[in-house]
Amino acid sequence: MSGNGVVILGGGMAGFGAAHALHSSGVRARLYDDRKQRGGHTSSYAFDDGFIFDDGPHISFTENKRFQELLAESVGGEFERIRAYVNNYWQGHWIKHPAHANLYGLPSDLIIKCVKELVETTQAPAPKIENYQDWLVAAYGPTFANTFPGEYTKKYHTTEAKNLTTDWLGPRLYRGDLEQVLRGALEPETPELHYIDKFRYPTHGGFVSYLDKFLPMADQFYEHRVTGIDMTSKTLTFANGAVTQFEKLISSIPLPALLPLIKGAPADIVEKAKKLAVTRTVIVNVGVRREDVSRAHWTYFYDADICFSRLSFPHLFSTNVAPAGCSAIQAEVYFSDKYRPLEGSHADWIEPVIRDLTRCGLLREGEEIIHKSSWATSGNVIFDHDRPAGLSDVHGYLNDIGVHYCGRYGDWGYMWTDESFESGERAAQRVLAG
Ligand SMILES: Cc1cc2nc3c(=O)[nH]c(=O)nc-3n(C[C@H](O)[C@H](O)[C@H](O)COP(=O)(O)OP(=O)(O)OC[C@H]3O[C@@H](n4cnc5c(N)ncnc54)[C@H](O)[C@@H]3O)c2cc1C
């Protein structure tokens, strides 16, 4: 196969994973992306005022040694190693993460119910689990389930827990045993139990610097939004008027956007792809001239009347992403076309975010804000009950016509950067294997 015959759609972790695997086998691919710059969802944006914000908070917490080494080489060994401190905010209380094992300081009645129900759940016969709500109640008891993860689900996944399956959970939700829960209710200092207890982050340039090693491995074309894919004539057309041929196609474009682009794709498959639900994240960035805004690297927010689900504090990842003496705050507010459409513009969320930062005491009343920015970006696959059957039909069709899908939005999973990169590598290996 001539090298340039392989085309990769998408210049994020999966696209560069594919480029890396092809390059390792002597194949130079062409990579097309609709954004202005490399990185996809791991892009970083440098502002003239000295702040650098990622496309949503990105840290590397992989235990995959090969991937750790690839990223370390990419930044010439210049990365921060950080012990994570994560906390939660609920109705004026700041508690350590995971909340279930750190109830200390919450109202006594709430703690008593949480502990009592945990004991009852462990003694009850195993219930039938049909959805994420069932799982939450079986794991924690109804009070904790409904007060914390149940509320968080509505904000973060934009729908109720009963509308979700449980096949995405992995280590994401921590369930303390009785001793851990009692200790966490009685003592302010507890052992680290979160599945992300340490992480790495590039010293310079934001998270996207982790891709630098892979840039020479493919010819790249940015601001090239694919508008048509003809698998018979092997032709791609782009919004900017460009047209190109390919021999093999690897795609990390989100499936709901990909399927309508394919000439001759059956209408029922296109419809199934469009029904695959995903959140849309409004990112709001705020900068202030003081360093002590937060001790936590990130914080989860459970209250329905606080607009953001999570805040992160990038200046604690690397001091080089904010001007000296300043704090960077990044808020995530979640929407989805299917369950909670974003009305208006992402910029409409800047003032509500500042209001809620002030209400929970992170910003001081009237404090000077030295940076404000916002944008909307892709979020998380919503594991609703429509997903499994629709996904398998969509993937089956792509397999039949020879589109090698990969990445978070090609595989359509809850994948971290290392998993997306390796998914791209696997797609390339399938191409190489013919
Ligand atoms: C808020 C948030 C925080 C996260 N934090 C972490 C973290 O801390 N650590 C971690 O490991 N993982 C994190 N992740 C997951 C991580 O972002 C993904 O695993 C990874 O970036 C996905 O890479 P990808 O290449 O599969 O997709 P993408 O990076 O989305 O790449 C797909 C590319 O295709 C482009 N595209 C779409 N349509 C077209 C078109 N028609 N034509 C051309 N190009 C097109 C897109 O613009 C994009 O650049 C986070 C995810 C979210 C949502």
Write the layout of secondary structure elements.
Blueprint (H helix, E strand, L loop, with lengths): L5 E4 L3 H12 L4 E4 L11 E3 L5 E3 L10 H10 L4 E5 L2 E5 L2 E4 L11 H16 L8 H9 L1 H6 L1 H8 L21 H9 L11 E5 L15 E4 L4 E5 L4 E4 L4 E3 L2 E4 L3 H4 L8 H8 L3 E11 L9 E4 L8 E3 L14 E10 L13 H10 L9 E13 L5 H15 L1 E3 L2 H5 L4 H16 L2
Parallel strand pairs: 1-2, 1-13, 2-9, 6-15, 13-19
Antiparallel strand pairs: 3-4, 5-8, 6-7, 10-11, 11-12, 14-17, 14-18, 15-16, 16-17
Helix pairs in contact: 1-13, 3-4, 3-7, 9-11
Bound molecules: flavin-adenine dinucleotide.
**Broad structural category:** alpha/beta
Mean pLDDT: 95
Strand content: 15-25%
The order of strands across the largest sheet is 7-6-15-16-17-14-18
Distance between the amino and carboxyl termini: 9 Å
CATH class of the domain at 3-60 and 205-274 and 384-432: Alpha Beta
CATH architectural group of the domain at 3-60 and 205-274 and 384-432: 3-Layer(bba) Sandwich
Report the total helices. Answer: 13
CATH topology of the domain at 3-60 and 205-274 and 384-432: FAD/NAD(P)-binding domain
